[in-house]
Amino acid sequence: QVQLVESGGGSVQAGGSLTLSCSSSKYTYTYDTYYWGWFRQAPGKEREEVATIGSSGSTTYADSVKGRFTISKDNAKKILYLQMNSLIPEDTAMYFCAARERWCVRYPYWGQGTQVTVS
Predict the structure, then answer these.
(1) In terms of Cα–Cα distance, which of 15, 30, 1, 20 is closest to 93?
(2) Other C-beta atoms within 10 Å of 36: how many?
(3) What whole-number distance in Å separates Cα of residue 97 and Cα of residue 89?
(4) Which long-range contacts (CB under 8 A, 24 or more apart) does 111-116 make?
(5) What residues contact 56, with CB distance under 8 A and at least 6 apart?
(6) Which of 73, 115, 117 minimizes the C-alpha distance to 96?
(7) Mind listing the pLDDT tens digit for each residue in 20-67?
(8) β-bridge partners, 97
């Protein structure tokens, strides 16, 4: 199955920026058949979808991050990115990248997560 590894998390002051990366490998199908997403979960809260990007490059964002976060992918390097600007304490969470075949609804493939802390 698809293997995902996140990196780039850390601690940052409010108003700062971070870029998360998600490297992928071991695809069941060809790379261009997959959709990608970033999710986050804070302690005591439900996991929420932050941003998604389709194989064609179409994107979606949670209302809470619109205008501040940008999801992108490098198809040559097979890396998913989440550029996070104007961070606020409410962004503090464990961030996960996920992948699914483009014809599926749910995401079966997940990374281990990377912690983002905003103070």
Answers:
(1) 20
(2) 27
(3) 20
(4) 111/4, 111/5, 111/6, 111/22, 112/5, 112/6, 113/6, 114/6, 114/7, 114/8, 114/9, 114/20, 115/9, 115/10, 116/9, 116/10, 116/12, 116/18, 116/20, 116/40, 116/84, 116/87, 116/91, 116/92
(5) none
(6) 115
(7) 999 999 888 888 899 999 999 999 999 999 999 998 899 999 999 999
(8) 38
